[in-house]
Write a structure and sequence with these properties.
- The protein has 226 residues and is of the alpha+beta class.
- The protein has a single domain, classed as Aminohydrolase, N-terminal nucleophile (Ntn) domain (Glutamine Phosphoribosylpyrophosphate, subunit 1, domain 1, 4-Layer Sandwich), CATH 3.60.20.
- 38% of the residues lie in helices and 26% in strands.
- The strands form two sheets. Strands 8-1-2-9-10 form a five-stranded antiparallel beta sheet.
- The protein is globular.
- The termini are far apart.
- 38% of the residues are buried.
Length: 226
């Protein structure tokens, strides 16, 4: 009688984590920066149609790196979840923290029980109103771990190097233009800033009354980078 093949649970978890990290590291990086205008999200993404950054709800944004079809499925699920809760209760009851926890439960369940983990990292960000200058950023990892991040958050690619650069150059209360220039600089390779046609940029604008999310592109993006 042949003995069944045995792999320890610790080794299974390690292999899944290594697999997910390698898949995510192959992707292009994304950063979020808190600035005077709100929360700026900048992604290294030359595609004009396949977005990494999206609106989830009135003042909440979603951004992701990794396998496109997997994080798009999660994005759609998040939009439906937010719409259902806002319709059933109140729009004010939909929060970035609650969405981040829902994503964490899904990713944790897949990581623990499925053969292949999701190769994604997610960012859920929320901005307050003009009278309430608070902002929240939740970084959700492939295994369901949630990190509440302050000032800035970095996802995917060369995250460690980018974090070191931001530690040296980020300043609280930066203007929108300065934050965007810093984002383009730290995302660039060999100390060369990325250009407008290499970037996907969006802002959670705290000055807006209801829907805070807006994309920055075209002439506005070129002017801010100039």
């Amino acid at each position: 009688m042949s003995m069944p093949f045995y792999v320890s649970p610790e080794q299974v978890m390690k292999d899944r984590a290594d697999y997910a990290r390698k898949g995510i590291a192959r992707g292009r990086s994304l950063i979020a920066l808190e600035c005077a205008a709100g929360v700026l999200i900048v992604a290294d993404n030359p595609s004009r149609t396949l977005s990494k950054i999206s609106e989830i709800y009135d003042r909440i944004a979603f951004a992701a790196v990794g396998k496109y079809n997997e994080f798009q499925m999660l994005r759609v699920a998040g939009v439906r979840h937010a719409d259902m809760k806002g319709f059933s209760y109140s729009r004010e009851d939909v929060s970035a923290k609650e969405l981040a926890n829902a994503y964490a439960q899904t990713l944790g369940q897949v990581f623990t029980h499925e053969m292949k983990p999701y190769e994604v990292e997610l960012l859920v960000a929320e901005v307050g109103s003009a009278d309430d200058d608070h902002a929240e950023m939740y970084h959700v990892l492939y295994d369901g771990v949630v990190m509440d991040e302050q000032d800035y958050s970095v996802l995917g690619g060369q995250a460690e190097q980018i974090v070191e650069a931001l530690k040296a150059e980020y300043q609280a209360g930066m203007s929108l233009a300065d934050a965007l220039k810093l984002g383009a600089k730290v995302l660039g390779a060999d100390e060369a800033s990325l250009t407008a046609d290499q970037l996907e940029v969006a802002l959670l604008d705290r000055s807006r009354v209801r829907r805070a999310f807006r994309r920055i592109k075209g002439d506005e993006l070129n002017a801010l980078l100039a």
